C-alpha cells in the first residue's frame, strides 16, 4: 500500500497547477447545422485516421478471403521505399489533395492561409522548370501541427491558387510510414518522411517541402496564448537549403495553432516530464498531456477546439551560395536572416490575429 501511495505522490508533484476545470460536460446542440456537423466529422477523421487505417489492416488480415489482396500488398510494402527515397513526388495526387473533405477540415477551425509576397514559381504553366524550390519552415508545432496539414498537405486553404507552380510535400516522422495502407494515404497527400536524405531527394526532384521546425520538443512547450519556439539551435534546415542548391527558405507562422488544445504542463525534472523526454529520445516523438472537446460535447475530448488559425507566409530568404560543405558562419548568417523574418511576420501580424499581448520567446 505504501508503494502505491509513493507513486501517487510522485505523479501529483509532477504536474504544474493549471486551470483545468472539474469536468462538467456541455453537450452539443441537437440543432447544429449540417455544415458544422460535416466539419466536425472531417476533423475527427484526420485525428483518428492513423488508428482507423491500423484497424482496417488488422481486419483485412483477420479474414482469409482478403489475403488475395493483402499478400501482394505486403510484398509491395516490404520493398517499396517511396517514403524515404524522394519518390513521394510520383505518389503526389492533386485530385486527392483537392477532395471536398479537406475544405470541411479547414473550415472546422477555420484555417486561413495568407501570403505577404508572391513567390517565384518553380514551374511555369507548361510544366517547365523556371524557378527555385523552397523550404517552408512552419512554426509553432502545437499538438499535431494541425494547421500545417490543412494548409500544405491539402487544398483546403487553396495553396495552389496562392502559390501556383510550387508543388509541396509536408514532412513528418518516418514512424508514420510503418503503418500499412496509412503510409499510402499520406503519400497521396504528398506527405513524406523528414529525414535529411529524403528531403534532399525530394528537393532534387524539384518539389518544395514544409518542415515543422520545432518538432517534438516544441510540443512540450505548447501553451494557450503563449508562444515558445524551439529555433535557436535548429539549423539543419538551413544547411539543407545551402547543400541542395537553388533552394530558398520561407518562414511561416500560424497564429492560433497553440490554442487548439489545452495543455497540462509538467514540471522540469519531474517524474512525468522525464518520462516524456525519454519517449522523445527513444521514439522521436513525445506525448504532451492535453485535452479539448469531443464530437458530442464541448469541453472534454481529443477533438481540437474550433479556434481560428491564421497562417502567414513570410518573404523568402534567398540562398545565394551552393556548397556541399557549408561553413558554420554561412549557416549562422542565413539562420539569422530567417529568424529576423520570422520575428517580423509575427510582430507585424500579432495584433491583427489576437496575439496583441503575447510575446515571442525563442528557445534552444
Q: Can you walk through the features of this model?
A:
The chain is α/β, with parallel strands linked by helices and 364 residues long. The chain has one domain (34-352). Helices cover 41% and strands 14% of the residues. The chain contains 14 helices and 11 strands. It has helices at residues 2-14, 34-62, 67-79, 88-91, 94-97, 100-108, 146-152, 159-162, 182-188, 196-204, 215-220, 236-244, 271-283, 328-349, and strands at residues 111-115, 133-139, 168-172, 192-193, 208-212, 227-230, 247-255, 262-264, 289-291, 309-313, 360-363. Strands 1-10-7-2-5-3-4 form a 7-stranded mixed sheet, sandwiched between helices. Strands 6-11 form a two-stranded parallel sheet. Strands 8-9 form a two-stranded antiparallel sheet. Helix 2 (34-62) packs across helix 6 (100-108). The longest helix is centred in the N-terminal third of the chain and has 29 residues, at 34-62. The radius of gyration is 21 Å and the shape is globular. The chain starts with a helix and ends with a strand. It is a multi-pass membrane protein. It is an enzyme of class 2 (transferase).
Question: Which key phrases capture this entry?
Answer:
364 residues; two-stranded parallel sheet; 14 helices; disordered N terminus
Main sheet makeup:
7 strands, mixed
Instruction: Quickly give the structural class.
Output: alpha/beta
Number of helices: 14
- Which range best describes the helical content: under 10%, 10-25%, 25-40%, 40-55%, 55-70% or over 70%? 40-55%
Number of strands: 11
Mean pLDDT: 88
The dominant shape is globular
Strand line-up in the sheet with most strands:
1-10-7-2-5-3-4
Low-confidence stretches: 1-24
Share of residues in strands: 5-15%
Using only C-alpha atoms, the radius of gyration works out to 21 Å
Number of domains: 1
What is the N-to-C succession of helices and strands? HHHHHHEEHHEHEHEHEHEEHEEHE
Amino acid at each position: 500500500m505504501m508503494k502505491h501511495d509513493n507513486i501517487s505522490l510522485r505523479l501529483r508533484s509532477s504536474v504544474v497547477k493549471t486551470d483545468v476545470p472539474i469536468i462538467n460536460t456541455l453537450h452539443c446542440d441537437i440543432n447544429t447545422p449540417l455544415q458544422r456537423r460535416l466539419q466536425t466529422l472531417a476533423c475527427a477523421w484526420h485525428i483518428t485516421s492513423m488508428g482507423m487505417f491500423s484497424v482496417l489492416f488488422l481486419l483485412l488480415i483477420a479474414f482469409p478471403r482478403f489475403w488475395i489482396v493483402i499478400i501482394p500488398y505486403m510484398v509491395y510494402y516490404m520493398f517499396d521505399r517511396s517514403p524515404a527515397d524522394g519518390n513521394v513526388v510520383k505518389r503526389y495526387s492533386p485530385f486527392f489533395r483537392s477532395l471536398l473533405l479537406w475544405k470541411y477540415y479547414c473550415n472546422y477551425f477555420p484555417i486561413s492561409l495568407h501570403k505577404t509576397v508572391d513567390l517565384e514559381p518553380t514551374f511555369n504553366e507548361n510544366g517547365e522548370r523556371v524557378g527555385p524550390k523552397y523550404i517552408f519552415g512552419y512554426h509553432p508545432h502545437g499538438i499535431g501541427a494541425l494547421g500545417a496539414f490543412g494548409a500544405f498537405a491539402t487544398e483546403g486553404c487553396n495553396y495552389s491558387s496562392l502559390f501556383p507552380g510550387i508543388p509541396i510535400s509536408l514532412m513528418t516522422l518516418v514512424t508514420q510510414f510503418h503503418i500499412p495502407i496509412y503510409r499510402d494515404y499520406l503519400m497521396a497527400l504528398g506527405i513524406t518522411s523528414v529525414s535529411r536524405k529524403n528531403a534532399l531527394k525530394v528537393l532534387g526532384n524539384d518539389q518544395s517541402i514544409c518542415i515543422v521546425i520545432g518538432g517534438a520538443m516544441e510540443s512540450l512547450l505548447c501553451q494557450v496564448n503563449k508562444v515558445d519556439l524551439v529555433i535557436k539551435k535548429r539549423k539543419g534546415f538551413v544547411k539543407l537549403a545551402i547543400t541542395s542548391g537553388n533552394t530558398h527558405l520561407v518562414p511561416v507562422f500560424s497564429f492560433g495553432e497553440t490554442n487548439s488544445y489545452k495543455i497540462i504542463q509538467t514540471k522540469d525534472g519531474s517524474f512525468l516530464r522525464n518520462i516524456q523526454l525519454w519517449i522523445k529520445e527513444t521514439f522521436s516523438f513525445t506525448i504532451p498531456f492535453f485535452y479539448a472537446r469531443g464530437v458530442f460535447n464541448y469541453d472534454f475530448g481529443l477533438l481540437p477546439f474550433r479556434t481560428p488559425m491564421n497562417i502567414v507566409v513570410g518573404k523568402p530568404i534567398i540562398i545565394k551560395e551552393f556548397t556541399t560543405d557549408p561553413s558554420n558562419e554561412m549557416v549562422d548568417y542565413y539562420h539569422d536572416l530567417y529568424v529576423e523574418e520570422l520575428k517580423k511576420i509575427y510582430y507585424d501580424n500579432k495584433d491583427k490575429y489576437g496575439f496583441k499581448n503575447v510575446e515571442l520567446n525563442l528557445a534552444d
